[in-house]
Amino acid sequence: MENAWKELQPKNIYQGRKAGPLKEESRSALLYLYQPLIGGEALSIYFTLLTEVSQETGQGPEGLHADLLSSLNCGIPQFYEARKKLEGIGLLEVYYKEDPSLGSCFIYELLEPIAPQEFFKDSVLAFLLLEKVGERRFNQLVRLFEPKTFSGEGYRKVTKKFLEVYRFSEDAYAADQKKIESLADTFAKAAKKPLLENRSAIDWQFLTDWLEKKHIAKLEKQVVDQIDMYHQLYGFDELTLGDLIVQAYDFTEEKVSIKEMQKIVLALNRTSRPQAKEKQIEDKPEVVIQTKEPLPNAAVQLIKEAQSIPPMKYLEAIKREKGGYVSKQESWLMQDLISQSGLSNSVINILLNYVLVIQDRASLTASYANAIANEWAQKKITTAEEAIQHIRKISSEAKQTKQNKQQNYPANRRKVRREKLPDWVNQPKDETQISSEKKAEIDRRFKEYLAKKEGDS
Length: 457
Fold this sequence. Notes:
The chain is of the alpha+beta class. The longest helix has 25 residues, at 384-408. The strands form two sheets. The protein has a four-stranded mixed β-sheet. It has helices at 2-7, 24-38, 40-52, 65-72, 76-88, 116-121, 123-145, 162-165, 170-192, 204-213, 221-234, 238-248, 258-271, 277-283, 297-308, 311-321, 328-340, 345-358, 366-378, 384-408, 423-426, 436-456, and strands spanning 13-18, 63-64, 92-99, 103-110, 249-250, 255-256. α2 packs antiparallel against α3. It is elongated. β3 and β4 (103-110) form a beta hairpin.
């Protein structure tokens, strides 16, 4: 309940998308095969979003979750749980961004269900369906979707060939060939292209081939994302990742346990002794630094380190130099930064340096680190150079603000109560010239006054 409200609010913006119209066989697969696994609420979400998507543009209008919840007649917790079921089974991709003016925004990309024949070929999905509906209903569904064969005994095939019916000018075809082939290319790429580009540098072909030799033929998307995150965070190579998958693989259920994989990674990280940063930099290829203005040597060295070392190793090196250690909370926070922030490894390393070295904080806190990561993501900071320039800019602005305050409000300045002075202080009245007789009379009286004072004493 609490997690759902943290992840989602009724005021959040959403937009549905789908690359192409839903196929008729896919509709049948959703109703008969997927619905027993995901439930009616998840299926309602799928079809509600589908009705909003324009077949011409592949996008629906932007709307509030409050309106979507009203249409579905459910609350945030129910919607969030049902949405997760769609994500987990491969029917929905969820994308998130924080907009400065609109707040949290989501894209819900609907994916095409796999065809019924392919569904039954997938041993995990078939097993889940059998467990859910029972053997009798499962057999009925198999009979419903299994390929039908017909007897052609006594008949011979007389079907016309394509070129026997349809004819066209070869010259006209040659003239339009490039255009037609380019169009075919566009449709093929659109079907395969993800909404967000994969930032992973893993050689998936090598890893897949290696896993097949270990009798692991398929990885779920959640596992792929986790593996990608470990590669970015720790710098694990393909063989290390493959060994990690094998250790966490349950051959009975034919799936990787993410919890088991997390335990193995944490244990591996505790027992491993990372090398010094300088040694790791020597083993890496020379990095290119591009800046609009020259940077100090210290900043150049920092950029090289940020581009050369995986974030977790970088964090461990900083903590080791300060005489500290990486806590479990920091380990989880690092995984969240890699998975959710969208920042590159080098930018995350600069963030670590800024918090732990420049600001000299003892440890990373989730609220503070996420606040910085959110700001940098919104400012489209993608490289270590941009991160350093941003830090220098805000530091310069802070210093200038402090100087201005000191000039306007000196440290030794005291608040003094000022009384309103009479006008004559600033504007004395004009003196009036007196006569010599009047002056002699004043002098006489003054002398008498002094003589009297002397007598008294």
